[in-house]
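Handoff note, outgoing to incoming analyst
You'll be picking up this chain. Sequence as last confirmed:
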Amino acid sequence: MSVSIESNFGVDYAAHLPLLGDSIAELLVFFGVKRVYGVGGDFVANLINTLDKQVAVLPSSNEMHAGFSACAQAELNPLGVCMTTYTVGSLPCTSAAALARTEGLPVVFISGAPGEAEINSQALHHSVHPHTAWHTDLDAALNAFKALGVRAERLQGQRHSGQPNVAAEQFLQLLTHAYVNRQPVYIEVPRDLIYQPTQALSLPSCPSQLRPQALNLSGAELIASQIRTQLEQAKAPLVFLGEKLRLNEPLLEKILAFCEQNGLPYATTWFGKGMLDESRPLCLGSYNGVFSRLPHQAYIESEADYVLELGTAIFPSDTNNAFSSQTHAIDNHGNKTMLKGTAQWEADIEAVIALLATQPLTLNASVNLAVETAQQLAPQAELGYHHLSACINAAQQRVERPFIFLPEVGNSLFASFELTTLGSDIGRSYLANPWYAAMGTSLPYARAVVDQLAERQSSQPVVVITGDGGFNFQANELINLQKQGANLIIVYMRNNIFHLGKAGDAPIYACNHEGFDPKLLIQAYGGSGHLCRQSGEFVDTLCGCIASGGLHLIEVPASVEASAQSDTTQKLNCYIGYRNGNPEATQRWQELCEKRD
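Most recent structure output, in case you need it:
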């Protein structure tokens, strides 16, 4: 016998039930979501209409870019959100989902889906199966995301006429999973559920109350005692901060306060670049073995006699650990304490730092970090990757405003590790994906950064550094930067080939055409184009672009000669050649390592 919710639980209870679409919007707002990036479509239209009342539903030029923008959003907020239509929209997001999983980003991929009333023997458009199949497969996208290790579910509708559906609770559990575990989730929402009643939720006052409040691991006081003893005995201590801390700003602030209080020098991994203000006297910068070139690298590699390593990855990455070249002094240090942060939200690190901070240390160390004189640029010198970072650093120093850097994967990324990152109005001054290394992310990332700055009413300059190959991956995102009225400078390094990792002359390496003029392209999107060949000209132009605001592209001819590459790229290419058995590269690599011994 069929019963209604009203007859089962009463009219008052039935009237108390919200519609699922309204609950989804309420939950996104609860987690601090103000913007959703995506591409519309028929299966997601009902959800767009509902969400648009409470959050900004912003367009992207394609679904993959929407996913990348959501990844950048998740670097800066509790959650990033991407929304697309069924399969034809969601499947292109799998690359961004892989990035989010690899980089540990809480991104919510929401997809519209066929309504539950539509599921029958008829084949639906956008479903992934041949028209000659005997049965339909509606779970292609769910299975694709699951194959990446992403938790993926379709919301479930009413299963009994007298019981409201629990889809809102299911949605909450998925958002909580992303938030607590810092991992992406994929959620399909059948379109006919949006306007159906769902069980009402009782939410806590803030998302942090959904996290485990108690530390279930014991022994923090013993670890703190060991660290205190080691620090007080050290003559040259070093605190090495891992990339896990970049998504835990409150803990990072406590650690930095502890270092400043006790005069402890600190550095970070490559993957943590941008989470520190490198102008602070105790900050030694971003370190990665032989591939680094830091003012105080000798302190890290030769002087430090005790290392406190906090929040580094459990399983090391070759990229972040000097490409497994055995030149990473922190990896090889014989006297260190590693506190990786095995509890959720690094609660174990927080407990130890709290105990250490109860009283100042009594240090034997006398750390003397002399201030290095800034590199002097020759204004007439030909510009290239080899001193691109020095030029940008000079411009940042001249305008006396910290920049936010968005380097593109390739030569631009490896040149960018020599940039000086300062403070930021949004908590990060450098955003990239060096672990997953997905090309084509810098402009979608820029969209999220520009939106975040606008929310904070900040005019902090944003600088994208890209090669011509990476730029052509994503130039269509310029239309949305134009609609945003973005203040953005694109430094466009041009050599017309995919240069990093190039191993031959096959046509696949040709990424550009000699006749292509990116200055005309940027003008089509309401921006200004510039061409610079010399260092002084570039610094002047970059400062002028920042002063005038708006969208700019600075084209820089970039030689492919080895001497014109950044120091990091030269070393990386040498190391790759050594690993590939090239005799000349092997000899150069051995000479490079001998200089460090």
